[in-house]
């Protein structure tokens, strides 16, 4: 029997995926990794003092992050090699007043975040995660991460005996059929709202060791508790929640950390891509441009013209997973553009600018893949099907930087559990390291 595909990075990837149930958790994990590698945390509310060879990062909303390295020694910053991804994934988010009583059970009302593949959420062990703002007994308010990594809730399906046509196709109503069942209510529980508030206070105490006076507000969602895994008979697959797009976050961060530091490089991960990116910390917001302008200022290019020159000499590689051809649904792909798992990174192309790739940016990426002996694939949607989008076109529109869209192929995009190829991870990292180290971007 052939041995399983081995890659020293896979265990770290699996740990990152499993421990990042929300954008806030993913950002905190990446920040910790950066600090362990010697990156300095900057604050947007303070003045920045940068130096040659500087390695630093900054976050916004605790859910978006930008890390950058300036050239070492006397090398001036003339361009930046940018890698972009997003931290959010489709999921079920709790409503502000989620607690309900139904047939003697405490259930939680949810709203869908992004394009959730709803059927995959039934009958799973679900945890609870996000951030909460609490009031301590002394009146002080604080924001805390909440991470419930044990079975907290489930969304039970309806028996086929009560819905004989379910396998013939049935629409799922997110308002009435996706509430999460949490616990059986007793007489001592009080109202559903009181029961849920008490439960949150207990969960916070369990994790943080402090009994808070009240939960002022929260942003919480449900998440699958099955850990990420390397699967397949020969270890060919990575299966996990949130591969779209934490896989790209991991790949981009690894490339930045393994770069030689000789060139200017920047890694940006933004929130809210799955819902349009229109926020202060999304790709359509000013976060990236704000950081670029501050870098431009502190490296002595403090003019609008200098900023425009820096942007136009740079290149953004937007990394977001691509649709791999499915063994059971091969007809959903254009016959000449069906990326396969473990066959290399994918250049994503769309004539209507749903992806930002053009022949110039794609040509450079193909050249880098050739130089690194990495195979490269191309994805184009069928002409009779719609096409998704990424942060690529948004970043190109907002900042003006030349951009292309690439990604690793995957199955089951937006499912509660997605699948990618384990061999593809190292291939894209290898190309992105070469990109970060590349002297010329033309």
TrEMBL record:
The keyword Transmembrane helix does not apply. Gene3D superfamilies: Aminopeptidase i, Domain 2, Zn peptidases. InterPro entries: Peptidase_M18 (IPR001948), Peptidase_M18_dom2 (IPR023358). Signal peptide: none annotated. One of its GO terms (molecular function) is aminopeptidase activity. The keyword Hydrolase applies. Pfam families: Peptidase_M18. CDD domains: M18_DAP. Its EC number is 3.4.11.-. PANTHER family: ASPARTYL AMINOPEPTIDASE (PTHR28570:SF3). Belongs to the peptidase M18 family. This is M18 family aminopeptidase. It comes from Cobetia amphilecti.
């Amino acid at each position: 029997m052939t041995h399983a595909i081995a890659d020293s990075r896979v265990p770290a990837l699996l740990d990152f995926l499993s421990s990042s149930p929300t954008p806030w958790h993913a950002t905190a994990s990446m920040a910790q990794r950066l600090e362990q590698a010697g990156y300095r945390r900057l604050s947007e509310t303070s003045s920045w003092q940068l130096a040659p060879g500087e390695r630093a990062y900054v976050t916004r909303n605790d859910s978006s992050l930008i890390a950058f390295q300036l050239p070492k020694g006397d090398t001036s910053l003339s361009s930046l090699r940018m890698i972009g991804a997003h931290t959010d994934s489709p999921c079920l988010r709790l409503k502000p007043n989620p607690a309900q009583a139904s047939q003697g059970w405490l259930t939680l009302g949810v709203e869908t975040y992004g394009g959730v593949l709803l059927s995959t959420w039934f009958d799973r062990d679900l945890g609870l995660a996000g951030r909460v703002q609490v009031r301590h007994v002394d009146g002080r308010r604080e924001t805390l991460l909440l991470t419930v990594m044990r079975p907290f809730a489930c969304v039970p399906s309806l028996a086929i005996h009560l819905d004989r046509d379910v396998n013939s196709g049935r629409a799922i109503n997110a308002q009435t059929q996706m509430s999460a069942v949490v616990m059986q209510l007793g007489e001592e529980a009080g109202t559903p709202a009181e029961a849920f508030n008490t439960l949150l206070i207990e969960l916070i105490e369990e994790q943080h060791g402090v009994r808070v006076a009240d939960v002022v507000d929260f942003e919480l969602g449900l998440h699958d508790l099955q850990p990420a895994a390397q699967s397949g008979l020969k270890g060919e697959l990575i299966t996990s929640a949130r591969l779209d797009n934490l896989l790209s976050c991991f790949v981009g961060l690894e490339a930045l950390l393994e770069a030689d530091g000789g060139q200017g490089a920047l890694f940006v991960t933004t929130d809210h891509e799955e819902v349009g990116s229109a926020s202060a910390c999304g790709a359509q917001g000013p976060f990236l441009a704000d950081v670029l302008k501050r870098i431009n200022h502190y490296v002595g290019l403090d003019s609008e013209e200098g900023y425009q020159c820096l942007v136009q000499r740079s290149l953004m590689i937007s990394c977001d997973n691509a649709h791999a051809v499915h063994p059971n649904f091969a007809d959903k792909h254009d016959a000449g553009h069906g990326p396969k798992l473990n066959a290399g990174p994918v250049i994503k192309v769309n004539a209507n600018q749903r992806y930002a790739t053009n022949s110039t940016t794609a040509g450079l990426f193909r050249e880098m893949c050739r130089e690194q002996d990495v195979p490269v694939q191309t994805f184009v949607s069928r002409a009779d099907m719609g096409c998704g989008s990424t942060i690529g076109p948004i970043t190109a529109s907002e900042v003006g930087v030349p951009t292309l869209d690439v990604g690793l192929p995957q199955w089951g995009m937006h499912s509660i559990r997605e699948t990618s190829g384990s061999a593809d991870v190292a291939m894209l990292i290898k190309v992105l390291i070469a990109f970060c180290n590349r002297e010329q971007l033309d």
